[in-house]
Amino acid sequence: MLQEKLQDVFNEPGCSTNQAKSEKERKKGCSKALKPGAAAGGCAYDGAMIALQPIADAAHLVHGPIACLGNSWDNRGTKSSGSQLYRTGFTTDMSELDIIHGGEKKLYKAIKEIVQQYDPPAVFVYQTCVPAMIGDDIEAVCKFAAKKLGKPVIPVMAPGFVGSKNLGNKLAGETLLDHVIGTVEPEVTTPTDICIVGEYNLAGELWLVKPLLDEIGIRILSCISGDGRYNEVAQAHRARLTMVVCSQALVNVGRKMQERWGIPYFEGSFYGVSDMSDTLRTMARMLVERGADKAIIDRTEGVIAREESRVWRRLEPYKPRFDGKRVLLFTGGVKSWSMVTALEGAGLTIVGTSTKKSTKEDKERIKKMKGEEFHQWDDLKPRDIYKMLRDSEADIMMSGGRSQFIALKAKVPWLDLNQERHTPYAGYDGIVNLCEEIDKTLSNPIWRQVRLAAPWDLKPDARPDAKPVGA
């Protein structure tokens, strides 16, 4: 079953990268053997867990050795406006004896204990490498537990060895399509209900966008999975429109929801002023096409005009401070292009952006915005990044946490742009937050200090504590 699911995910019609391949290459899919060290970027289990863990009121149980949970738990700064159960780490803590005798009984016992003690609306059970290799029938255990305990118990079949974190995201989406979406009917529906896919409410970013949607009259029926609730995710099939925030990871969810329930989807971004405005306009237009009141378009334009005027006024003080400052953007996916427009709008110069996790459409957007000569790197090696920073080709590097040590070694300011950050950058207020963080990072006096020569490297008469000659 897992092999069939992998082949289905690999042959994704909504993925432009996949469709650009030959028929022979497409059959192989993305199933290349990982290079040594590739696990540093996350395995399939890790990708599945970070995609589903933001469903805040569900219990997330990891069936495997305790290190699997310890390495992945809470590694995204997702926020919840209600239940905090998602922040509790549950694991079966498989030992050597469990590997010899099998862990199915231990798994059922753990599910039962969670249901009795916490009474969640559902339990997600994550398969890891060890139970997959010894042959634990997790799907059978989950089916038995659901029938016995009267709760949905959902098997997430994404053992780490099958591929990368990105593949795990897709398998998490398949899990929702197979076991969750369409199982609950909403009490009330409206012509302006939407489903957002691939938004994880990092640092509370969804909360900067939701008030604007509420003002326009657009209701978030379901968010997969930021600040999500199990029943809300389960009723996503009644939305009138789906927005896919990062097509590289969860385009399969948007496509299959369109095939099964006739819900059109589009790819959008909440990062940057122009991209935020374009997303709101697209939402309003597509909802009107599906029968919503045309007045929603006028309300959308009113909100956009007000917010753009306000945000440009707030960004004005940063422009003289950012004049001539160069940014190396080392991220991927939707941020590879949406952050370019956001940062340039604040007066910064982008020297290049990485596109390792970006789709073909993402790369085309960058070319359209910046031209053919703009630097795009699919695989920029750490030593090349270090050389660029050391040679002062950029004044600040913005990336994920795993790349920070390159910038620190080169003694160049660094700002976290990915999942570990604590400041929201989405929406109109988010771009102001981003500029404030960049300004604080660039002006931090520590960078002047670390670039000074150490006292023991100075000539004797240039040392701070040197005494005048003859004293």
From TrEMBL:
One of its GO terms (molecular function) is nitrogenase activity. Pfam families: Oxidored_nitro. It comes from the Bacteria. Belongs to the NifD/NifK/NifE/NifN family. Pathway: Cofactor biosynthesis; Fe-Mo cofactor biosynthesis. Transmembrane segments: none annotated. Residues 43-442 form the Nitrogenase/oxidoreductase component domain. Keywords: Nitrogen fixation. PROSITE patterns: NITROGENASE_1_1 (PS00699), NITROGENASE_1_2 (PS00090). This protein may play a role in the biosynthesis of the prosthetic group of nitrogenase (FeMo cofactor). GO terms for biological process: protein-containing complex assembly. InterPro entries: Nase/OxRdtase_comp1 (IPR000510), Nase_comp1_CS (IPR000318), NifE (IPR005973), NifE-like (IPR049939). This is Nitrogenase iron-molybdenum cofactor biosynthesis protein NifE. Gene3D superfamilies: Nitrogenase MoFe cofactor biosynthesis protein NifE, C-terminal, Nitrogenase molybdenum iron protein domain.
